């Protein structure tokens, strides 16, 4: 009885397994390793250190300067949100309060309030960015089956009939 | 080392994955292009809006939305009609008529620009030469400038009285804004449309949140009106203001209520918004001035 030659079949299966493993597991892994290798940890560390030192130096140096920087940043972000047409009403109120704190010599209060204003302005800018395309889905379409608009049901009272 | 056949075998799934990704991106691109194209058709928008509200309020004709919430809230409508017996905006109309007939700097008056004042249905329109939307308020100030007078402040009482008189003279006319045809008009229309549907302010609300998605529901004690007819009855005497105020003053109030910074009256943003809202209300009768809470 002749033994069947199973080597070509084994070879075929092995090479298929190898090709799938290489394509779906090894290649992304290698790419990830390459990316990690390209990042120089010493650079990151030194940047963090230098930022920390700068922050420490400025705060040690002059609280007024720190507050001024925070105020300028808040003002710039607020202007950007106004330019985008998405400024929030609370931001100028906080800016005014921060400016008054600064004028009164309360630099830490001014910096803190200015930071709040910056965060609000940042959020309004994020809203402006999101609304670039999001608004498109908020209108009824001619063919209602294509409309992603959610028509919320009347929940409070049924539409009263008016004679 | 791999031979040629093995290389082909290794690359085949990768190529398939790449092709799949590329075709997905192409499909997304086509979908995006299609949706942008759908935006630029004002008449389809108008029809879709009417169909939407017809479906939502099956017992109410689209034209009835000229009365805002009083089209579907019977109790509020009764109170409103009683107020209309002795309307608080009457004084504004009388004062507006007086102003309308008063001489301008060169001795002429507003009738040289607006005839008998029944012109509200001609506004707003897109002026191709100026490249902007012209509202009635802008036309009043242009008229004043042409006759040697200083323009009026847009949030002042005088211009609101004049528009109250013109609105009263124009009662019963039908809103008939020409379909935005050229590039500039279409851009202004789409700008207004985008404004209406964009979420803004700290509360992250769009006009459509209340007046499309939630139209007919209550916000605290008040019903939310439909977008159709939101421009038909201005200027209006608001009980909250204890005075007659403009549509743009109402826009500003809405914007402020959602925590956004309002734009000035007659800003480009509000004029484009008015242009969009008036176009989708085409076919509805003008019934200003009116009373609102």
Q: Proportion of β residues of chain B?
A: 5-15%
What oligomeric arrangement do these chains adopt?
heterodimer
**Structural class from helices and strands of chain B?**
mainly alpha
- Structure annotation, total helices of chain A: 5
CATH superfamily of the largest domain in chain B: Cytochrome c-like domain
Give the SSE order of chain A as H and E letters.
HHHHH
Largest sheet of chain B: 3 strands, mixed
Report low-confidence residues of chain B grouped into runs of 5 or more: 21-38
Mean pLDDT, all residues of chain A = 74
Keywords:
heterodimer; A: 163 residues; mainly alpha; 72% helix; B: 293 residues; Cytochrome Bc1 Complex, Chain D, domain 2; 3-stranded mixed sheet; two-stranded antiparallel sheet; 51% helix; 6% strand
Tell me what you see in this structure.
- The complex is a heterodimer of chains A (163) and B (293).
- Chain A is built from 5 helices and no strands.
- The N and C termini of chain A lie far apart (99 Å).
- In chain A, 72% of the residues lie in helices and 0% in strands.
- Chain A has a domain of 72 residues.
- In chain A, helix 3 packs antiparallel against helix 4, helix 3 packs parallel to helix 5 and helix 4 runs antiparallel to helix 5.
- Chain A is mainly alpha-helical and 163 residues long.
- Chain B contains 11 helices and 7 strands.
- In chain B, strands 6-5-7 form a 3-stranded mixed β-sheet.
- In chain B, strand 3 and strand 4 form a beta hairpin.
- Chains A and B meet through helix 1, helix 4 and helix 5 of A and helix 1, helix 2, helix 3, helix 8 and helix 9 of B.
Helix-strand layout with pairing:
The complex is a heterodimer of chains A (163) and B (293).
Chain A: H1 7-38, H2 41-61, H3 63-84, H4 90-103, H5 107-134
Helix pairs in contact in A: 3-4, 3-5, 4-5
Chain B: H1 4-39, H2 42-56, H3 74-85, H4 90-101, H5 111-114, E1 125-127, E2 132-134, H6 136-146, H7 157-169, H8 183-197, H9 207-213, E3 218-219, E4 222-223, E5 236-238, E6 243-245, H10 247-257, H11 268-280, E7 290-292
Parallel strand pairs in B: 5-7
Antiparallel strand pairs in B: 1-2, 3-4, 5-6
Helix pairs in contact in B: 4-7, 8-11
């Amino acid at each position: 009885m002749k033994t069947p030659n199973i080597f070509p079949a084994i070879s075929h299966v092995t090479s298929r397994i190898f090709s799938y493993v290489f394509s779906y597991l090894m290649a992304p892994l290698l790419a990830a390793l390459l990316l990690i290798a390209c990042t120089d940890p010493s650079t990151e560390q030194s940047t963090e250190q230098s930022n920390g030192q700068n922050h420490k130096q400025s705060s040690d140096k002059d609280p007024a300067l720190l507050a001024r920087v925070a105020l300028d940043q808040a003002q710039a972000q607020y202007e950007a949100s106004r330019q985008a047409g998405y400024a929030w009403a609370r931001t100028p109120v906080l800016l005014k309060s921060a400016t008054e704190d600064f004028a009164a010599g309360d630099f830490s209060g001014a910096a803190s309030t200015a930071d709040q204003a910056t965060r609000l302005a940042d959020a309004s800018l994020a809203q402006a960015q999101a609304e670039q395309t999001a608004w498109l889905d908020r209108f009824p379409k001619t063919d209602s089956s294509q409309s992603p608009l959610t028509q919320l049901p009347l929940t409070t009272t049924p539409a009263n009939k008016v004679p | 080392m791999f031979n040629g056949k093995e290389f082909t075998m290794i690359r085949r799934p990768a190529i398939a994955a790449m092709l799949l990704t590329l075709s997905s991106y192409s499909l997304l691109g086509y979908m995006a292009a299609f949706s942008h194209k759908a935006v630029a058709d004002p008449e389809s928008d108008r029809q879709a809006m009417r169909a939407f509200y017809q479906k939502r309020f099956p017992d109410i004709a689209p034209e009835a939305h000229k009365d805002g919430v009083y089209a579907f809230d019977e109790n509020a409508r009764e109170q409103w009609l009683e107020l209309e017996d002795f309307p608080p905006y009457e004084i504004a109309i009388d004062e507006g008529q007086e102003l309308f007939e008063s001489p301008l700097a060169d001795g002429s008056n507003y009738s040289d620009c607006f005839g008998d004042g029944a012109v509200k249905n001609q506004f707003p329109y897109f002026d191709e030469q100026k490249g902007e939307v012209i509202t009635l308020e802008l036309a009043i100030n242009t008229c004043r400038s042409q006759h040697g007078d200083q323009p009026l402040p847009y949030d002042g009482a005088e211009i609101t009285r004049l528009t109250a008189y013109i609105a009263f003279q124009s009662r019963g006319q039908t809103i008939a804004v020409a379909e935005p045809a050229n590039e500039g008009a279409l851009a202004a229309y789409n700008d207004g449309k985008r404004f209406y549907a964009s979420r803004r302010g700290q509360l992250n609300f769009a006009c459509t949140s209340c007046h499309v998605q939630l139209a007919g529901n209550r916000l605290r004690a008040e019903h939310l009106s439909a977008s159709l007819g939101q421009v038909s009855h201005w200027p209006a005497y608001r009980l909250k203001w204890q005075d007659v105020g403009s549509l743009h003053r109402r826009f500003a109030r809405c914007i402020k209520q959602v925590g956004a910074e309002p734009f000035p009256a007659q800003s480009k943003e509000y004029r484009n918004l008015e242009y969009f809202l008036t176009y989708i209300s085409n076919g509805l009768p003008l019934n200003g001035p009116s009373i609102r809470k």
